[in-house]
Amino acid sequence: MGTMMHVREQIAETRTAFLERVFPALPVDAIDDLERIALPVHFDEAELIAQEGSYASGIYVVRTGLVSIGKYASHGREKRCLRFLGPGELFGLEAVFLEREPINVQFAKAVVDSDLIFFERSNILAFSKDAPMVFADLSRWLAREVIMLEFKLTREAVESMDRNLALLLTALANKYGETNANGAPRAIDLPISRQTLAELLGVSVETLMRGLKRFRERELITTDQGRICVKDAEGLAQRARVNNFYLSIIEETL
Question: Which CATH architecture has domain 159-252?
């Protein structure tokens, strides 16, 4: 099954089972109460879910599809994609952790048709009074985002583009890649443009293309009509030079 079929397919588990997986700290009776305030919402491909600078109305959890998270430049025209969210991942924590009127510090957009579950700010705060353990799950996600951001900023400042590209491709392949039963190359079959990949790395498209060319020449990857296949996963991981702890954080928040 292709990667995009995977991110588009309907999840067979019930909404209750899905929420239990996303909020493992909550007891069963609290999950039942949480489900009562859960609002299912759908967004079409390329549809804006939340605008940067607008009121943070609540928390979103991705159930199916793929969502990109990014920020605009100070002059408001250029943008940069920071990460992707797949099923079971969430955004909008500003709504519960900021005491003053919260605003979205990033924008969110559906990469493909996506189904999400929305928890309105006042409802989730009221829910937390009877189920404070929800903050254990929200804080766990927030902590991983902070670690990921610090790690990403450090690597961008001190590591070469090739090492950062190797890390990005390794994480994308591990999280979204597909592998045949015989262990064939892991294909990254996502509707991600070269511009978006460059934004994730903080480099120009031209710099990215030169990096991909070097990786092809070293037989680390192959490319075909926008599709990237990891030919030498071990060699790519060696160039990324990252331990499994940080790799798991990058994958969870990518």
Answer: Orthogonal Bundle (1.10)
